[in-house]
Amino acid sequence: MLESGKKTFIDLELVIETILTKKMQIAIQNDLDIIKINKVESTHIEIHDVKVSKPFFVGVDHAITPWPVSHGVIDQDAIGKLPLAGYELLLLGTGDRFSRLDTESMRYLSDTVGFEVMTTVSACRTFNIVAGEGRKVLLAAIFSTSEK
What is d(CA 64, CA 148) in angstroms, rounded to the nearest whole number? Predict the structure, then answer.
């Protein structure tokens, strides 16, 4: 920035160069070999032309895997079946509506891994962003049509 009296001038060339540099970095990151959820709906997702409509988990180090969730409820038993070791963040998708975890599950996760609970659509979108940043993230989700 240049100052002249009380007015401040922005170096427009520097701003344009910064914007172009950031766009280049984003383009490079998008070319990483990562799992990306291509389509997200309340009843299913698609990852590389594979349609998933049952509870599942997927991570940067794990392929799409069925997630045995009893009666469509995410509890400590269901969470215990997730491969949390080595992940810095767990995203839990609770279907169409946000649903709180029970106290026992919250306590367990708080001692184990960083986590966020949200709707499945939001969790899938967040997974794409976080995985695109190169972070170690695991997504576990159920759908509203999952057996309850």
Answer: 21
Q: Residue ranges of the alpha helices (H) in the chain?
A: 12-30, 76-79, 103-112, 120-132
- Parent domain of 61: 35-142
Question: Which residues lie below 8 Å from residue 45, measured CB to CB, with a gap of 6+?
Answer: 37, 39, 51, 52, 120, 124, 141
Task: For 7, list phi and psi in degrees, rounded to 5.
Answer: -95, 145
As beta bridge partners, residue 47 has 37, 50
Q: Which of 102, 98, 66 has the alpha carbon at shortest distance from 82?
A: 66
Q: How many domains does the chain have?
A: 2
The first and second tokens of residue 74, run together, are: 């995410």
60 & 19 share domain: no
Q: What is the pLDDT of residues 31-86, one digit of tens each?
A: 456 688 999 988 999 988 889 999 999 998 888 999 999 888 899 999 999 999 99
The model carries a pTM of 0.75
Rounded CA-CA distance 117/121 in Å is: 11
DSSP-based three-state secondary structure for 33: coil
Distance CA 58, CA 67 (A): 9
Q: How many CA atoms lie within 13 A of 135 on its CB side?
A: 15
Contact 70, 147 (CB under 8 A): no
